[in-house]
Amino acid sequence: MKKYFLFIVALIVMYGCKQQPAQPQMMQYMESCSQWRGAWRDGVYHETGLLKAWNPDGPELLWVFEGLGDGWTSVAIADEKVYATGMLEPDDLYLFILNLNGDLLEKRLLGKELADNRYPGARSTVVINDGMLYVYNALGELWCLNLETLDVVWTKNMLTDFDGRSVNWGLVESPLIVGDKIFMTPGGQQDNMVALNKKTGALIWSSAGTGMPSTYCSPQFIGGYSVPMVVTYLQGPRGEGRTNINTIVAFNAENGELLWTHPHASGNTINPNTPMYYDGKIFATTGYGGGALLLQLKDGGKAVEQIWHNTEMDNQMGGAAIIGDYVYGGGQNNNNWFCIDLKTGKTKYSVQEIGRSNTIAADGMLYVYNDRGWMFLVKPNPNEPEIVSRFQITHGNNQHWAHPVINDGVMYVRRDNALMAYKVK
């Protein structure tokens, strides 16, 4: 009886009595680091006991692995193994599996990757779920592998098996898995979004949706409403001048019914940031002057209403992190790092020193990796910026674009062909 009582107390402490039943966090549909941007795709890693400051030259570097090839994917971690993909010459896509000491355990050729491009390389983060491993390339091919044997269980191609349409930088998304379904966005006029059986690849439903092309966005799942929904971005038509009327869109996760759409205009069709859930609302941000929106879910999730639009934090692909009632993230045209009040939509401050960057959070701190190669440890403070520590990433080459990952007290940072592991606990 005592053990049962302690278990109930632990649950109350973990979730809190004020937790919203509609929040996707209640479902925790994926393991913490086995997919894109953590358990709930919000960039928040649920770690404790992490350092609150680093040495002047940064936290302890545990190891470096060089040889991943071209790519900007984050790592996925499961069963004490680290998974990543990369492209080696000329256009071969490889799966790399390392142990937690940085030793290469497996290097497996999967197929081809997009090479005829200004930025060639792997783009979509590996997803691990229920004994299977899923890899997606920019050419639209989705592989399902047995996690233990790495045998191919099934494959689908969003371009040839559905009426998918390729876009400028290739088809980019990290597959979303909820229950027995894996959700993908071919971006076709008939197969706008599809749900496949995660074990067999069989089509569960296909939705014509809006008929708009995909736009590099990894979708989000929101449960707890009258209908469970999958929320993502799609490209929209060209508006006046150079404006693109891109669209935030929600599908019924059970049958593919189009629930609602909401325009989010910007100066480009690049919208890689996963929409995030916040207290019955959806926060979304895009670059090229598009800024940030907060949408109120209404009618049991079947409709939305815009609460505010902040044009300053126009985050292109660096994501953001919500701490309390404030969101932190970088801009794109507005090349600063911002804190925004989620209640009002007002900018609390912006920091030019940090600039364009990727932002994640863990244990009450913000980890910010900017496109000039600096890693910042920032204490979230809505009143003034508090940069606690910083150091420069020197290993690897090309762009500083991959989102960091924190797992079991270790921060994993990728820079194209190099993966670094830092002790932050």
Question: What this model shows, in words?
Answer:
This protein is 3% helix and 44% strand. The protein is mostly beta strands and 425 residues long. Strand 13 and strand 14 (203-207) form a beta hairpin. The model is unreliable at 1-27 (pLDDT under 50). The chain is built from one helix and 33 strands. It has one helix at residues 2-15, and strands at residues 44-45, 60-66, 76-78, 81-88, 92-99, 104-112, 127-129, 132-136, 141-146, 152-157, 176-178, 181-184, 193-197, 203-207, 220-222, 229-234, 244-252, 258-266, 276-278, 281-286, 291-298, 303-310, 320-323, 326-330, 337-341, 347-351, 357-362, 365-370, 374-379, 386-392, 405-407, 410-415, 418-423. The strands form eight sheets. Strands 1-27-28-29-30 form a five-stranded mixed β-sheet, with no helix packed on it. It has a single domain (25-423), classed as Methylamine Dehydrogenase, Chain H.
